[in-house]
Design brief:
This protein is α+β, with helices and mostly antiparallel strands. About 40% of the residues lie in helices and about 20% in strands. It has a single domain (about 5-120), classed as Sufe protein. Chain: A (Alpha-Beta Complex), CATH 3.90.1010.10. The protein binds FE2/S2 (inorganic) cluster.
Length: about 140
């Protein structure tokens, strides 16, 4: 049994912002072919800020906790700020994740990023921090 922090357990048992935004401004999907887990993030943007963030996650407990945490961290942030939510930042905010669960935090950060990218592409926006570093991974120590 991997050890989970209280925060992970809390977000797993009571995930925040679960659901779909029907008229979302951006949608991002990410999955991991190895474990088969998948998540989708929906965003509403107003005045360059994430007015609302929701997600649907079909995945392990850590993936659910990660999505919940990412959604909370992202809400109210500007797009540029939200792009700074990396897998390692999420894992840290959750009080750490077991090593074999790092990839779960990658999914969450990446799905949010995709949703922002979707929005930016539709609007023809160039956002700082959106280029490159597509595959940053949580640190292994
Ligand atoms: Fe794959 Fe958690 S085991 S996302």
């Amino acid at each position: 049994m991997p050890m989970y922090s209280d925060k992970v357990m809390d977000h797993f048992m009571n995930p925040r912002n679960v659901g779909e935004i029907k008229d979302a401004d951006g949608v991002g999907e990410e999955g991991n072919p190895v474990c088969g887990d998948m998540m989708t993030f929906y965003i509403k943007v107003k005045d360059n800020r994430l007015e609302d963030v929701k997600f649907q996650t079909f995945g392990c407990g850590a993936a659910i906790a990660v999505s919940s945490m990412v959604s909370e961290m992202a809400k109210g942030k500007t797009l540029e700020e939200a792009l700074k939510i990396t897998p390692s930042v999420v894992a840290e905010e959750l009080g750490g994740l077991p090593k074999n669960k790092y990839h779960c935090s990658n999914l969450g950060a990446q799905a949010l990023r995709r949703a922002i990218k979707d929005y930016a592409t539709k609007k023809g926006l160039k956002l700082e921090g959106l280029e490159g570093e597509e595959h940053e991974e949580a640190e292994e120590n």
